[in-house]
Amino acid sequence: MAAVGPNTRGGEAPPVRRRRFRPGDLVFRGSSGVVAVGLLVLLALIVWNLSANGSRAFSRFGFGFITGREWNALTNHFGALPYIFGTLVTSTIAIALAVPISVGLALLVNEIQVGWVRNPLTVLVDLLAAIPSVVYGLWGLFIMAPIFDKHVEPFLYRTVGKIPGLGVLFHVPVVTSTVVVAGVRHTQVVPQTAGGDLFTAGVILAIMVLPIVTAVTREVIAVVPRDLREAALGLGATRYEAIRMSVLPYARSGIVGAVMLGLGRALGETIAVALLVGNDASIHASLLKAGYTIPAIIANNFREASNVGLERSALLALAVLLMGIALILAALSRLLVRRTAGLIERKDASEAGSAPALQVSG
C-alpha cells in the first residue's frame, strides 16, 4: 500500500502555491540590472577613451611600441617593453612573497581558538588595508630601503647570489676595496646596492597586497564545512594533515581568486613603486637593479607631457596596455577558479562513485 503524505489526499498532488508578487523584488532586480549594465558601459567608455587618445602612438609604431626599448620624447620614439617588464617582475615578486604569508595568516586566524591572539591579528590585517599607498612609499623609502641596501641585499648577494643559475637574479655591481688592519692589507668586495630596485619595490607591493589576499582567503576558509575537519581528525589525522587534505582543497578555488585580486592591486600600484623602483628603463635579469613600471612612468611624466609630440599619446597607450594586462589576468583568474572548482567536484564525484555501496540484508 502506498504511503500517503500529510499534504496529499488520496494520492493527489499538493496544490501549487502561487508566488506572491512583491514590488520590492521587481525594483531590486531592475536596479541591479541597471547597475550591472552601467558598469559595463563605464568600462567600455574608459577603454574607448584611452584607446582613442593612444591611437596615435599605436598607429605610428604598431607592434613595435610593445617590443621597443627606447623612450625619448625629443626624437618621438617610444617603446613600452622595459615598463611592461618592470610591472610584471615587481608584481610577480609581490605575489610570490605575499601569498604564503596571507594563506598562513588566514589559516591561523580561522583555526586558532585563543581570542587574545586571533582578534589583534584580524584587526592588524584590516588596518594594513586602510593605510594610503603614499604612506607605504615613504615608509619604504626612509625605513625599509636603507635596511635592504645595507643588510638584506648584500646578504642575498653573498649567499643566494653564489648559487649557479639562481644567482643571476641577485647579481649587482661590486667595488673592490682594500683595508689595512694591524699592518695587514685585506681586500674585500663591497656590493653596490644603493638606490631603488625591483626587489625593494616588489617587497613593498607584497606588504600592500597582503591585507586583501588575507581577508578574502580568511572568508573562504571560514565557510569550509566543519564536518570535513572533524572527519579528518576522526580518522586519525593531525591538525596539519586535516588542513592540508580537507580545508585547503575545498578552499582552493577561492584562494586562487584572492591571489588574482592581489595581483590586480599589485599591477596598478603607482606612488609606492615610483618611490622605490629606481625609475631606470632597462631590462636585466638581476632583481637588485633599478627598473621602471607602467604606473610609475605615467605618474612621473604625464603632467610634463604635451600634446605637440607623441609622448602623451604614448603614455595613454601604456595605460591601455596596463588595462589589457589586468583584463587578461582577470579572465584567467575566472578560468582558474572554474577549473579548480570543476576538478574538485569531479574528484569528489569519482571518490563517491568508487566507494563501496552500503549493503542491507533483510
Report on the architecture of this protein.
It is a single chain. With 362 residues, the protein is mostly helical. The protein has one domain (33-347): Orthogonal Bundle (MetI-like fold), CATH 1.10.3720.10. Helix content is 65%, strand content 6%. The chain contains 12 helices and 4 strands; from the N terminus they run ααββαααββααααααα. The protein has helices at 23-61, 64-67, 81-111, 115-130, 133-158, 198-222, 226-234, 239-250, 252-268, 271-276, 294-301, 311-354, and strands spanning 71-72, 77-78, 174-181, 184-191. It has a two-stranded antiparallel ribbon. β1 (71-72) and β2 form a beta hairpin. α3 (81-111) runs antiparallel to α4, α9 (252-268) runs antiparallel to α12 (311-354) and α11 (294-301) runs antiparallel to α12 (311-354).
Low-confidence stretches: 356-362
Class by SSE composition: mainly alpha
3D shape: globular
Helix fraction, binned, reads: 55-70%
Helix run count? 12
Q: What is the typical, i.e. mean, pLDDT?
A: 83
State the CATH superfamily name.
Answer: MetI-like
Strand tally is 4
Largest sheet: 2 strands, antiparallel
Classify the fold: give the CATH topology. Answer: MetI-like fold
Distance between the termini: 19 Å
CATH architecture: Orthogonal Bundle
Total number of domains: 1
CATH class category label: Mainly Alpha
Give the H and E element order.
Answer: HHEEHHHEEHHHHHHH
Major sheet strand order: 1-2
Strand percent estimate: 5-15%
Radius of gyration: 28 Å
